[in-house]
């Protein structure tokens, strides 16, 4: 009997979502963000799947993430979004010319200039997060891609989108390419696409509402039944006695909890399914265990698996959390099964 929940991750869906976002990017080349361990789904499987689909530009946050990936597929390039520090120079040099920093500060520019190697650069156009104020410091350097990042792309009508677009156009371009749009930026339209787009959340089934109905779900959760209990009417289940059985109830206790990244707020609307029969979540989501009412389900045994409903967009909206947070919070205790 397995005692850990598992994630079923569809690599076919990841590839299909990339192709959809690439088509929506028009003439721009389409890359892929695989930072945060591929948004919690496994960076190396995402890299290999997306490279096979046609992606050639990939993005991680740190040099530790870059090193953990291992060798890049033939023809692929990897950009490290947080830039470079003196302590990371040896790693950066060892990973070779296909892996480069995205320079964000004057100190990073000065440090990387010593290598004589190409880099990417982030220009701040109003998000006031990472990025240089201008490109004047870059004279004499080989810059592959000049990036900026949108603050409000998820809100298409927000005035910030047009303001940042104008600011990006106004920056002198010392680079081979320009890149501004993430998944939501792609949905804003061709004006934001430039030469390269950087989808992330959209690859994994979340992201811009304008494309949501065409993006495929990527991840599903299955949880093993540790124990089946027959609870009489009037008895409670779980911490706080928040659920009181209105009838004799068959309860499945599963190895799934908030330590796995399954949100506690799912207690108000969560459910699982057995042969198409809905099985409501009952009581609280605890650290390691969650209970489901399987009274109306076909017969079950301890060790069987429940398909736990987990639509990323719906769960994020119901839990008042970002889709990014939900995906990257899926814990290491899950077995990850790629299909």
Automatic annotation (TrEMBL):
The modification N6-(pyridoxal phosphate)lysine is found at residue 35. Keywords: Isomerase, Pyridoxal phosphate, Signal. It holds the Pfam family Ala_racemase_N. One of its GO terms (biological process) is D-alanine biosynthetic process. It catalyses: L-alanine = D-alanine. InterPro entries: Ala_racemase, Ala_racemase/Decarboxylase_C, Ala_racemase_C, Ala_racemase_N, Ala_racemase_pyridoxalP-BS, PLP-binding_barrel. It is an enzyme of class 5 (isomerase). GO terms for molecular function: alanine racemase activity; pyridoxal phosphate binding. Residues 1-15 form the signal peptide. Residues 218-339 form the Alanine racemase C-terminal domain. The keyword Signal applies. One of its GO terms (cellular component) is cytosol. It comes from the Bacteria. Substrate binds at residues 129, 287. Pathway: Amino-acid biosynthesis; D-alanine biosynthesis; D-alanine from L-alanine: step 1/1. Its cofactor is pyridoxal 5'-phosphate. Belongs to the alanine racemase family. Catalyzes the interconversion of L-alanine and D-alanine. May also act on other amino acids. This is Alanine racemase.
């Amino acid at each position: 009997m397995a005692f850990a929940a598992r994630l079923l991750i569809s690599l076919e869906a990841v590839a299909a979502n990339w192709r959809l976002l690439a088509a929506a990017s028009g003439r721009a080349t389409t890359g892929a963000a695989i930072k945060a361990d591929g948004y919690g789904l496994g960076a190396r499987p995402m890299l290999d799947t997306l490279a096979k689909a046609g992606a050639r530009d990939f993005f991680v946050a740190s040099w530790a993430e870059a090193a953990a990936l291992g060798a890049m597929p033939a023809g692929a390039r990897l950009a490290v979004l947080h830039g470079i520090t003196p302590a990371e120079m040896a790693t950066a040099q060892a990973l070779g010319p296909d892996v480069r920093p995205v320079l964000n500060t004057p100190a990073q520019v000065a440090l990387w200039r010593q290598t004589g190697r190409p880099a990417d650069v982030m220009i701040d156009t109003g998000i006031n997060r990472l990025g240089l104020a201008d490109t004047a410091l870059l004279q004499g350097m080989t810059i592959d891609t000049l990036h900026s990042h949108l603050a409000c792309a998820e809100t298409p009508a927000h005035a910030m989108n047009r303001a940042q677009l104008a600011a990006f156009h106004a920056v002198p371009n010392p680079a081979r390419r320009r890149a501004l749009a993430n998944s939501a930026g792609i949905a804003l339209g061709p004006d934001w696409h430039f030469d390269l787009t950087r989808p992330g959340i959209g690859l994994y089934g979340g992201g811009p509402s304008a494309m949501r109905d065409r993006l495929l779900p990527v991840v599903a959760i299955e949880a093993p039944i540790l124990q089946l209990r027959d609870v009489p009417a009037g008895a409670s289940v779980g911490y706080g006695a928040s659920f009181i059985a209105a009838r004799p109830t068959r309860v499945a206790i599963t190895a799934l909890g908030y330590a796995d990244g399954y949100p506690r707020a799912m207690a108000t609307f969560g459910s699982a399914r057995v042969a198409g029969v809905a099985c409501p979540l009952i009581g609280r989501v605890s650290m390691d265990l969650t209970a489901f009412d399987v009274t109306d389900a076909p017969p079950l045994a301890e060790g069987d698996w429940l398909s736990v409903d987990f639509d990323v967009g719906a769960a994020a909206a119901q839990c008042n959390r970002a889709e990014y947070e939900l995906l990257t919070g899926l814990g290491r205790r899950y077995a990850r099964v790629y299909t």
